[in-house]
Design a protein that fits this description.
Layout: E1 35-40, H1 48-51, H2 56-66, H3 76-88, H4 92-104, E2 107-110, E3 116-117, H5 121-133, H6 137-149, H7 157-168, H8 173-185, H9 194-206, H10 210-220
Antiparallel strand pairs: 1-2, 2-3
Helix pairs in contact: 3-4, 4-5, 5-6, 6-7, 7-8, 8-9, 9-10
């Protein structure tokens, strides 16, 4: 049985974002090769790449999960501007939410040629970093995932482990499961430690994480 590790960020609510002047993390507040616009996809719609393989019911469930404030009486533009304002003021929830929007393609970015980007992990990484530095557990998980996959930042497993650990210590079950996988398999050159892997899997499993439960079963079946 293969060990299961989350690969996308759909489990996170879009309610916040953050800031860090870390040399290894892009400083998107000053602008890079990309130009960000204060636009989002139409209200109530998912980006096309998130709809693939999902039934109408599953799409509705996903929308409720990642777009939790559709009935606040605000237009998409007003909602985005408020989120951006709160994020720039230092609200870590807003920073994490803004990072999620850029990663999922709900906030529109353009590349240097002016083409709309389906996803903007560079800008997402900048906002996740800002929130993560303030101790936001979901942002720490998100940033760890970007480092693990090399999305928006240079791939670096040891940095991913650092952020996963900070998130996991606050009870984030996906971070706990990811740490278990990394320590068990030596993902990205990480030091293998089966006992530590089992410890993290058990913590996640106790919170009901199905992936961690399956990973424990796979270890026991060996």
């Amino acid at each position: 049985m293969p060990y299961l590790i989350p690969t996308i960020l759909i489990a996170l609510m879009m309610t916040a974002c953050g800031n860090s002047e870390n040399a290894s993390t892009p400083d998107t507040s000053k602008g890079t090769q990309q130009s960000t616009l204060n636009e989002i996809t139409p209200l109530g719609e998912l980006p096309s790449f998130l709809k693939q393989g999902l039934s109408a019911e599953e799409q509705d469930a996903l929308k409720k999960e990642i777009i939790p404030t559709l009935d606040d009486g605000m237009t998409p533009e007003e909602r985005f501007k408020k989120l951006r304002m709160d994020a720039e003021a230092g609200d870590p929830d807003a920073q994490n939410g803004l990072g999620t929007m850029f990663y999922l393609g709900e906030a529109v970015s353009r590349d240097a040629a002016g083409n709309i980007m389906e996803s903007d992990p560079v800008t997402a990484a900048g906002w996740f970093s800002r929130a993560a530095e303030q101790g936001h557990a979901d942002a720490q998980f998100n940033l760890g995932l970007l480092y693990l996959n090399g999305e928006g930042v240079a791939q670096n497993t040891s940095t991913a482990v650092k952020w996963f650990t900070r998130s996991a210590e606050q009870g984030n079950v996906d971070a706990q499961n990811n740490l278990g996988v990394i320590y068990l398999t030596g993902e990205g050159g990480a030091t293998q430690d089966k006992d530590l892997a089992i410890e993290w899997f058990r913590k996640a499993a106790k919170q009901g994480n199905e992936e961690a439960k399956q990973n424990l079963e796979a270890i026991q079946a060996q």
